[in-house]
Fold this sequence. Notes:
The protein is an alpha/beta fold and 207 residues long.
Amino acid sequence: MKVFYSRxxxxxxxxxxxxxxxKEFDYVFTDKCSGSIPLxxxxxGSQIQKLINSNNLTHVEVHSIDRLGRDxxxxxxxxxxxxxxxxxxxxxxxNFQNLNDxxxxxxxxxxxxxxxxxxxxFERKMIRERQREGIERCKIEGKYRGRQVGTSxxxxxxxxxxxxIMIQKDIENGYTTKEISYRCRCSFSTIDxxxxxIYLNYGYRRD
Length: 207
């Protein structure tokens, strides 16, 4: 059974450029969610897992590899899982695959997927490192900029709260405000407050 999978981040985005030449596929699945959500936890991605578990899936195809995930570990784990099960994974842009027409490992594609995924993950690690350095600098200098009127809570104390840390991680991983609100059970204003302290008070910008 052959499946084509596409993903866009929001309901407003159009995925038509991904949905081309699909006549040969048994299923076409489209998710509209953040790429940081693991594939099998997405509404349509979970359908792919069901096909895998029932041994009915032989071929998965995507427009680009980042449709499957944003971080190195999750993409490589999925790549290995499908390869071990003999399921062919094909990426159209750039063109590479885990298994060739003979069912053998495509060594060049193995190298490609590792390099592409590592580059993406490296960028995110650099963003986190800049954030950490900004926080440490403020601690050393004793500068608590941006305290809101009428509150005695310091920025450092606020950013150290477990829920705030969860929100920060979701922001870094690319979740939308609506998704973060649902996942962390918090208001939009709290999320905006976290973003303000991170991006304005610590000189951290998401480039």
